[in-house]
Every structure is written in structure tokens, then in C-alpha cells.
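Quick log. Single chain, no ligands specified.
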Amino acid sequence: MNNRVTQLFNIKYPIIQAGMIWASGWRLASAVSNAGGLGLIGSGSMYPEVLKEHIKKCKAATDKPYGVNVPLLYPDIDKHIDIIIEEKVPIVFTSAGNPKTWTTTLKEKGIKVVHVISSSKFALKAQEAGCDAVVAEGFEAGGHNGREETTTMVLVPAVCAAVNIPVIAAGGIATGRQMLASMVLGAAAVQIGSRFVASEEASSHINFKEAVIHSAEGDTMLSLKQLTPVRLMKNIFFNRVQTAEQQCASAEELKELLGRGRAKNGMFEGNLEEGELEIGQVSAIIKSIQPAAAIVEEIWNEFEFLLRQPLK
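-> predicted structure:
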């Protein structure tokens, strides 16, 4: 497909793998890029020296475009940006922060910049900051989410009407059918996270992958809105958070409950009861662990097939 996003990133398919903490290392990013999509290294769970190692290994594993996702709420962002510039990463997706902070610096180095947003208001701010595209991420998405709780079906057309830059749909997308729906709403591409968590190349723990493919509708919920909203799979830790919030716990009390390394403990080390398990609602329809290339191919083939079918 030849459209604004495939041209912007020089990729074959308008399918982007989200940069997810504890899941999106160089193996997954390079596999998706080699399959024709755009793979992203998720830097949020990486120390600067670890990010540098993953970028080098990704460059060695693919000659296709790839990128790095940078959640702006994490520490050492300036060090991450320095490494990204030093290693000549071609594409950066920023999220969870002000796009004005780093967009100009990155673009001056010839890096394409995309910002993840949850409303038309923030989409316009990203466009004003000089971003090349935005990811319109709906309420269904896993991980850190918008406070507005706007669903993808509503958010994508609203953002498409608000900005002139390309819009990438995210949140609740795991199949070619859902990709087609997103494109009909006006998106030029899709960003997919949860489906790739359950890929063979994802660095997420096999316990977490198995939990994803055995999950059902209603097994996730947006939580921690008093801090930074995040969609979590329900477990013992989630129940503790819910109880604390119902008892009007302060932000400091919630931070203490979170502690350190809770996400690593769950998603990377496989503690399904006490760990923080970030995943999207669409996990309810993901039923197998597959190679990343097979996921890309399946999504694209279903999209192309349905695109040719008459409306029923």
C-alpha cells in the first residue's frame, strides 16, 4: 500500500508495532520491520546503556526502517535522546508528555517524530510542535492511557478532522478487520501493541503471554487515574489498587503501593498475581502466540481480502 504513512516511514505495510515496556526489544522490532511493518524499540523499561545495545542489535538484524518509542514521563530522557541521535535512529515515537520538549531537537537531526495523543486538543498541540504524524490512541489500549476515556471509534475520526498530518489509529486493534475499520474512519495506518505482546519475539514473559491469550472480555480495566491512567489486567495487585482507590488513597499512598519494579515483576518476570500487567481490551480476542512476521502477514492478508468484499 502506498499512502502518507508508508511514504513517511518508507515501509511496505501501514502496520506499526507499539513500543511497549518489557515487551518491545530489538528482536521484536527487527522482526516486524523485516516483515514490512515498522518495528519500535520500547525504551521506557531500559536504562540508557541498555537502549544503546538494543538499537545496535536492531540495526544489525534489519536493513529496514525501525524506530524507538520514548515515554516522556520516565527518567533519563535526555540521555535516551542523546543515544538516539548518536545512533542515527530514523524514527521516534514520543508519548506521555509535551511534544514540544524534544520534537524540534530530533527533527533538526533529520529524525521523523510521531506523538501519541488521546484527544483532538493534544493532536493539535503535536501538530503545532512540528510532529510528522500522531497516534490517536483510544481508551481500549493497554498501558498508559488518556484521562478522557474516549474510544478509538470516536477518537480517530475526531482527530482526523482536527489535524492535517497523518493519523495512526491505536487501541483495540489486533486484526485486519479492525485495521480496515480504522482506515475507513480516516486513519492512514494502525499501531498494534497487545497482539505483539503475544508474539514469539516479544521479551514479555511466557506466563504473561499465556495470560493474554487466555484472557476474556472484562479482564482489563483502566486504573490509577489519580497518578497516570493505565489499563491493567485484573489480578491480586490490581485488586489492591482498586481497594486503595475506593478508600480514597492519596497519590503518595498509591505510589507506595506501586513500589519499584512492579511492571518488570509482572510482564518481564512473569508474576501474574503481584505484578503490574499492562494489556489492552483486545487481548480478549487474541488466542495464540505467533511469530511477529506471521502476525503482520495475517493482519495484512485479512485487511486486503475484506477491502475487496462488498458491504453486507
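Residues 43 and 70 are 6 Å apart (CA to CA).
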